[in-house]
Design a protein that fits this description.
This protein is mostly helical. 77% of the residues lie in helices and 1% in strands. The longest helix is centred in the N-terminal third of the chain and has 35 residues, at 45-79.
Length: 321
Amino acid sequence: MRATGILVAGVGVAALSLSAALLWGSAPLSVHEVWRGLTDANAGAARDIVWHLRAPRALAAFACGGLLALAGVLLQALLRNALADSYILGVSGGASLGALAATMLGLGLASLHTAALAGAVAAIAIVFGVTFRGGQWNIYRLLLSGVVLSAGFAALTSLILVLSPAAQIKGMLFWLMGDLSYAGNPWFAAMLLIALTLGAAALAPRLDILGLGETKARSLGVGVAALQLTVFFSAALATTAAVMLGGAIGFVGLMMPHAVRLLGVTRHRLLAPMAVLAGGSFLTIADTCARTLWAPQQLPVGIFTALIGVPCMLYLLTRRA
């Protein structure tokens, strides 16, 4: 009953965050106008604002936040490390390097996304090649290779920023801080989020056992190597999709799983969907603030994930002290 109540509360918060994203913006709409825009084909400007501007961006923000939070849950289970987050694999660094290189060369948006995808895939391939050898999976090598690769990508990214023309620097910084202004079609990311969440729920009992240690998990009949590979590629896929959608948005993958755990949720069958709901709601609210508070100017959403998330997380830590 308690788990059901927590899940219902999470769904309610997600619905409220999406509703706020539809209501608030540079041109505020009333509840009646939003409803007409959603249901009435003759609603005029309200329908255009809701369906063509706010709804796609709200869905993109929710999908991006949910993917980052889910990747954080999976990696924390894989590494048995509370400090693991969705960018520890170097995927964000690789995608950022590819995107910034495309921007420096003056390529279009489609080429930028292609370059970001290529950088992310290269990072995944390097980490996997270093970590998985001879049919053996080394968790410590995964952690170290991800950190080292991220540092290398960061150095190359800094070099591109130094060499790029001044007119391109602002767009690059927006990508590095996270920006949903140019998010593409969010439906693929949303469908991927649903599929990965269902997959994580199916793996939940084995993830709980994996937390006891590899030796204990093997003694209980868990195929540890296969489970680790599945979790690794699921987390990498979620992170890649999120970075492609919103750039390098920090904080969500690290803190949202912890925030849910501080509410007393520890089993992965509930932890994974609750983290998805919390991460999606959190990033949707942060993006609404980013495009509303200084309208018509829009700010990078990564700024607000830190400004909103840090005080909330400190409050939860203090309350559970």
